[in-house]
Specification:
By secondary structure, the protein is mainly alpha-helical. It is 69% helix and 1% strand. The chain has helices spanning 2-26, 35-39, 41-49, 55-72, 77-101, 113-138, 160-180, 184-188, 190-206, 210-232, 244-271, 280-285, 299-310, 329-353, 361-376, 383-394; strands at residues 28-29, 33-34. It has a two-stranded antiparallel sheet. Helix 5 packs parallel to helix 16, helix 6 (113-138) runs antiparallel to helix 7 (160-180) and helix 7 (160-180) packs parallel to helix 10. The longest helix is centred in the middle third of the chain and has 28 residues, at 244-271. The protein starts with a helix and ends with a helix.
């Protein structure tokens, strides 16, 4: 009985701590920061620099310090503060890799498999509440009126390009756990979890973010690669499960998503006028083109990237025209850290994976976050997005 009470308190404490951290990332401070940036980001920076000195951590810390020096070397006083602030943000993905590789990190929490899933389940509930609040604000049922489906509080819904991929990641976390690592809490609440998967999946797609589609695409690629490696090497852990039970779950989800998607579409068309819901958002979600320079939202960015590749020699080291944010991580990294910095970061990231030896949420996060950073956007440097990714890694899921 005492162990049960202690486990319950531990799950509650960890859940509330994670939710508090995320809420801090939603409270805006100044022009482009949050309470998390002021209070917790410096703590994470210190924790990373003075983390346990394993061989991999030493490589990470040395790499990060080298990139820090590379970034600020030769800068003028005008943008020195901007460069330092940007590099401190860059510590977030490095700390994520550090926790991923250190199997003993957070072992002092002594959390069992079912309790880990309880924490993930609770965090999923919290994100569902964020999504519902943002949706109700978007369709003008509650105030203030939002301009998109984004993180509540922070930007009145203007960051849907970040919130919707976050919902896609959450969908993948719950789906993967339901199929591969279900414990008592998932089995007990299977119907609700299936509903939440359907809800977040549809919501992530109908509001106009191609980043969500990219997350799902990366999950398919990840499982395909894992299947290939598993086929070639019979000693791999956690083989993909193709049981009759999982096939039934997949068929149920596919049917439910199709049916509920039709109902949602009918409701949107019938009851919400065009000034309350922009139906072009759904079309934009699947609006892909091979001619990247003609892309309506990132055409200019891709033109700049093409010019960069035509003059690679001049981009070997960081550029003088420092940029704090651009909607393409590859361009951001090369501009601010040079080709040298890009190669260093990619090498460390890929080495942290080695080979896909374990079919886990954490492995998928590390695999996909590098692709997402380089091909899509540098959201992993933004606390309100990064905190969602770090939860399964802390829990070793």
């Amino acid at each position: 009985m005492e162990n049960y009470i202690n486990d319950k308190k531990r799950v509650l404490n960890v859940t509330l701590s994670l939710i508090t951290l995320h809420l801090a990332s939603l409270i805006p401070i100044g022009g482009s920061g949050s309470l998390f940036d002021i209070v917790f980001l410096p703590i994470i920076f210190i924790l990373f620099i003075f983390s346990k000195k394993t061989i991999f951590n030493c490589v990470l810390i040395t790499t990060y310090i080298s990139l820090f020096i590379l970034c600020i070397l030769g800068t003028n006083n005008f943008d020195l503060i901007l460069r330092v602030q940007w590099m401190i943000r860059l510590v977030l993905p490095f700390y994520l890799l550090s926790i991923f590789k250190n199997e003993n990190e957070f072992n002092y929490l002594k959390i069992g498999a079912n309790n880990k899933n309880k924490i993930l389940f609770n965090f999923n509930l919290y994100f569902l509440l964020l999504a519902i609040f943002s949706l109700l604000s978007l369709i003008n049922i509650i105030s203030p009126r939002y301009y998109g489906l984004g993180f509540p509080i922070y930007s009145l819904g203007l960051d849907r390009h970040m919130f919707l991929p976050a919902l896609a990641y959450l969908t993948v976390f719950m789906f993967h756990t339901l199929l591969n690592q279900p414990s008592a809490i998932f089995i007990k609440n299977k119907k609700f979890i299936q509903f939440s998967i359907i809800f977040t999946f549809l919501l992530s797609l109908i509001m106009g973010s191609r980043g969500s589609v990219f997350v799902y695409f990366l999950y398919l690629i990840y499982n395909l690669l894992f299947f290939i490696f598993n086929f070639l090497n019979k000693n791999f852990d956690n083989k993909i499960r193709f049981s009759r039970k999982n096939i039934k779950i997949l068929l149920f989800l596919i049917f439910s998503i199709s049916f509920i998607g039709f109902i949602i579409g009918y409701i949107l068309i019938s009851y919400f006028p065009s000034d309350q819901f922009d139906f072009n958002r759904i079309e934009r979600t699947f609006d892909f083109t091979l001619n990247l320079t003609s892309d309506p939202s990132r055409g200019d960015v891709f033109k700049t990237l093409i010019d960069l590749f035509r003059n690679l020699g001049s981009y070997f080291l960081p550029q003088e025209n420092f940029i704090t944010s651009v909607d393409l991580g590859l361009l951001l990294i090369i501009n601010n850290l040079g080709i040298l910095g890009f190669l260093i970061i990619s090498s460390v990231w890929i080495y942290s994976l080695k080979i896909l030896k374990k079919n886990s949420i954490s492995t998928f996060i590390v695999f996909s976050s590098l692709c997402y950073l380089m091909i899509n956007s540098p959201h992993i440097m933004i606390p309100r997005f990064w905190l969602l990714l770090i939860v399964p890694i802390i829990l070793k899921l």
